[in-house]
Write a structure and sequence with these properties.
single chain; about 750 residues; mainly alpha; Serine Threonine Protein Phosphatase 5, Tetratricopeptide repeat; two-stranded antiparallel sheet; 38 helices; about 65% helix; elongated
Length: about 750
């Protein structure tokens, strides 16, 4: 009440002066020094120091009683304190005392609830002073508020003619253009408005978020909402949108970003606006871990292992729950003994909860970070009481959160590139990688030199995490956090970069060179046992395997389980039919090499592999395929040292990205056919990958070409294999060959 009386006394004195003046008074523009002090007061309000802001604005009002900026700031402050009705009564009295003063009509209009009543007051202000920018602005605001953006634009343009640097007019123009679907011009206006007046830019950022949402640019939408929250932490609408992301978004990256932003929000503004409610929504429900482990054990014992179940188990492992590690290993189908001899302490800790408990929290979090388990590490911290998280652990948590923000933004950006929303980055791998580097630098402070590992030669499938990975590169950074970047080019020229979690986890260092097949297989095998996790981009990252040499066990293991269940579900009659099949009738070599009707042939090969091994060794075969890529990397990378071999490869592929990739996939699959655990299963996947109509994708093209070469060689040497009939298609008799016979034919294909 004291504040309202003092404010009213000042403006009543000004109103009296206006009454005795014979002419209409137009307020003079506010001097920059006054605007700066008003901004200081608004910043105090933003930081929750309301009384200090009131005192400052009150003193400014006494010095400049006709300042629009001071009056608006005071009105906003008092309306936030639920004094709107008192304010309306005061300013209505001012209008009655000075009916020809446009200032009071404009300020009174701001306080009214109904848009039509506001229009009346704003029109009076404009009629009294046609060249006063705020009266014209008020008319534009009412038009837009009533859903008539086209009618608002002439008023806005008139206001900008009177004051080209009027931030709110530019903001209003941007919102009007956005409503008219002119997003490009709208974005220009809104960003300019935000630069002119940061503290009034919340609505500009909200409008920019709406534009990004309409375009499908989720990363830009998040950045705009984050900026809006910085400017107006009390804005309930922005907070609700982030909470909606957290609860309902189908994108894991968006959920991670929303959670991180809201957690930082309640830390920075613990008592402002909706922060207490947000804190309650973010609070983690303490669960009975033993009950959860028992539930997961029951599911695993039924043979149901999905990536989600594997991740839940990893969370329990990270929280050092006894028994979780052994169950997790069992779910993946990896013998527990294979984990013990790992080269890093975290592997021993995973297998020994007692030893894990003895590790300091900060060191344990660093272990999890190096293994790529940043989410699990943060979940562990959230489950602990604050007293258990010391300063060293807090430092690690800050680094984990900045890294997860970077990963999530990389994922959203790559999704947008794949959707064609960034044509420059989609057609130029260098632009793409520089943009990725800027995202990491912004979030983590790491200055990355991203150009060095890139080449402009049309070699696709270049592994950026090569043995020549330069210090300071994007992958040098990612490698410290258990991730790797694979980049290549897709058909049509679009760049593709797949961010993946590295299964090698906390290996201390990478071996120098690749001496022989046994050495590579041993190293990759050891790496696989240490760090299984899904790739960050999920199915878009190659579905079943990480093409950066590493295996995605969380996908491959369930995939192998599904194939095994399909085979085991065969009835005795179906199995007998598959074993007895001799293919289609064929006359001559061309018909014998036909690849028609491949599905039965693929199932027969899988059934034969299951008979020989008692399971389907999918992981081992994909492992052999990836080792094939390793050997190709030795032959083709770095490009500068292997120009001739790359020229020949490009010539084979017709100098197209898809063509070159198909030959690389053919080469890797040929390696798997010779060195894989089950050549029958390799053939089964080649047969199953045959397209039913036209050839699609580099894998299908490469596998089909390899299969046709295999059938041609088999037909040429048909007399060596008495189990095969010459009058039947070879494709449907492949299951009759022994593993050594398949390897022998495949070895002759080079």
């Amino acid at each position: 009440m004291r504040f309202g009386l003092r404010h009213g006394a000042v403006v009543l004195l000004v109103a009296f002066w206006g009454c005795v003046s014979p002419s209409t008074r137009v307020p003079d523009p506010d001097p920059p020094s006054l605007v700066q002090q008003v901004d200081e007061a608004r910043d105090l309000v933003r930081r929750g120091q309301v009384e200090a802001a009131r005192a400052l604005l009150e003193s400014l009002l006494a010095r400049a009683p006709r300042s629009v900026a001071v009056h608006r700031a005071l009105q906003n402050l008092r309306m936030a304190g639920h004094e709107r009705e008192d304010l309306a009564r005061e300013y209505r009295g001012l209008c009655a005392a000075a009916p020809r003063d446009p200032l009071w009509h404009y300020l009174y209009g701001r306080l009214l609830h109904r848009v039509e009543d506001q229009r009346v007051e704003f029109k009076r202000a404009r009629d009294l002073a046609p060249d006063w920018v705020w009266g014209v602005y008020g008319m534009a605001w009412t038009e837009l508020a009533e859903g008539r953006p086209a009618r608002a634009l002439p008023y806005i343009d008139a206001a900008l003619e009177l004051d080209p640097r009027h931030a709110l007019a530019h903001q209003l123009k941007g919102r009007a253009l956005a409503a008219l679907q002119d997003f490009d011009l709208a974005e220009v206006e809104l960003r300019y408005a935000a630069r002119l007046d940061r503290l009034s830019s919340a609505q500009a950022w909200v409008a920019l978020a709406g534009i990004s949402e309409a375009r499908g640019e989720r990363l830009s939408e998040f950045e705009a909402l984050s900026q809006a929250l910085d400017v107006a932490p009390e804005d309930e609408g922005v907070v609700e949108r982030l909470l909606d992301w957290l609860a309902d978004s189908d994108s894991r990256a968006m959920r991670l970003l929303a959670r991180d932003r809201l957690e930082r929000y309640v830390e920075e503004w613990p008592d402002v606006g909706p922060a207490p409610r947000v804190r309650a929504r973010l609070s983690r429900v303490v669960r009975d871990r033993r009950e959860e482990l028992a539930r997961l054990r029951a599911v695993v014992e039924k043979g149901v292992v999905t990536p989600d179940i594997s991740r839940q188990l990893r969370g329990l492992v990270a929280e050092r729950e006894p028994g979780a590690c052994s169950l997790w290993v069992r779910a993946l189908g990896v013998p527990a003994t294979e984990l013990a001899p790992g080269p890093a302490r975290i592997v021993r800790c995973l297998a020994s909860p007692a030893e894990a408990e003895a590790v300091p929290l900060a060191l344990w979090l660093q272990f999890l970070d190096r293994a790529g388990w940043q989410e699990e590490a943060l979940d562990l911290v959230r489950a602990l009481p604050q007293s258990a998280v010391d300063d060293a652990a807090h430092e690690v948590v800050r680094a984990l959160r900045s890294h997860l923000r970077a990963l999530s933004k990389l994922e959203l950006f790559a999704d947008e590139v794949e959707a064609g929303l960034h044509p420059g980055a989609g057609s130029d791998l260098g632009i793409f990688m520089r943009a990725m580097g800027r995202i990491v630098a912004k979030e983590t402070g790491e200055k990355l030199g991203n150009d060095e590992p890139l080449r402009s030669f049309p070699f696709v499938g270049e592994i950026l995490d090569s043995s020549r990975r330069p210090a300071g590169s994007l992958n040098a950074y990612l490698g410290r956090h258990g991730q790797v970047m694979f980049a290549g080019r897709l058909a049509g020229g679009m760049s593709q970069a797949l961010l993946m979690n590295v299964v090698k986890g906390p290996l201390e260092e990478r071996p120098e060179g690749w001496p022989d097949e046994r050495g590579i297989r041993g190293w990759v095998g050891e790496a696989v046992r240490i760090r299984p996790k899904e790739d960050l981009f999920g199915e878009s990252a190659g579905r079943a395997l990480l093409r950066s040499y590493y295996l995605d066990l969380d996908v491959l293991r369930p995939w192998a389980g599904r194939l095994s269940r399909d085979v085991q579900a065969l009835t005795a009659r179906q199995r007998q039919r598959l074993e007895a099949t001799q293919g289609l009738e064929a006359h001559g070599g061309r018909e014998r090499q036909s690849v028609a009707l491949p599905l039965d042939a693929a199932m027969a090969l899988r059934w034969r592999a299951f008979q020989l091994h008692g399971r389907l060794p999918v992981v081992e075969n994909v492992h052999a395929h990836e080792v094939g890529h390793l050997f190709d990397a030795l032959e083709f990378l770095p490009l500068g040292d292997h120009i001739l071999s790359n020229l020949l490869l490009a010539l084979q592929g017709g100098f197209t990205a898809e063509g070159i990739m198909s030959y690389l996939e053919e080469s890797a699959e040929a390696h798997a056919l010779v060195h894989g655990v089950s050549p029958h299963l390799v053939l089964a996947e080649m047969v199953a990958a045959l397209p039913r109509t036209a050839e699609v994708g580099p894998h299908s093209r490469g596998y089909r070409r390899l299969l046709e070469r295999f059938l041609a060689e088999l037909d040429r040497r048909l007399d060596e294999f008495p189990s095969l009939r010459k009058d039947r298609t070879l494709l449907h008799q492949l299951h009759r060959l022994s593993e050594d016979e398949i390897r022998d034919v495949a070895s002759a294909l080079d």
